[in-house]
Amino acid sequence: MIGWLQSLSHQISDPGDIVCASPSRMYGRNVLKSTTEEFCVDPVNRYLTVIISLTVLVATFVLAIIGILVSYKLRLRLYKKWKFHLFDRDECDGEDMDYDVFLCCSSLDENLHGNYIQELLEDNGYRVCYHERDFLPGQVIMENMHHAIERSKRTLCIITNNFLRR
């Protein structure tokens, strides 16, 4: 409409008389001096759209962060409830491994922790290589450890002062 009126502006006797009555944001403005964008694009709606989009984006981001934090804080409860463990995934597919984990600790310690961890793992269905039970007598300790590491999917070390001294 603006283009049409501007093309006829040389035929209009007083172009200043052609003013807008609607929309309210354009009230009283000269139509011939206005642009198509001023008529078609409502700046309030544009800013409102941008603000709503940003709000949705920020809210989604905040909810994602909260979800990650909550699942991180509750991960042990979630694992226990649904019997899903971090090590359930078998990254050693196709390999004939004798053990799921080699539990490495010093024999000079009282082994309270070692025995507890071994029992806990075995109660949950994991095959554990434990030095007191599974090492071959008469072999050098380093050879036994080497074979245990090669035959296990994972190695778990209980680091104590006695372990570090040996």
User: What CATH first level of the largest domain would be assigned?
Assistant: Alpha Beta
- What is the CATH T-level topology of the largest domain? Rossmann fold
Report the order of strands and helices.
Answer: HHHHEHEHHEH
Helix % is 40-55%
The major beta sheet can be summarized as:
3 strands, parallel
Unreliable stretches covering 5 or more consecutive residues: none
Mean pLDDT: 80
Number of strands: 3
- Radius of gyration (CA) equals 38 Å
Oligomer, anyone? single chain
Please give the count of helices: 8
Spatial strand order of the main sheet: 2-1-3
Cα end-to-end separation: 91 Å
Could you tell me the strand content as a percent range?
A: 5-15%
Q: What structural category arises from helix and sheet content?
A: mainly alpha
CATH homology-level superfamily of the largest domain: Toll/interleukin-1 receptor homology (TIR) domain
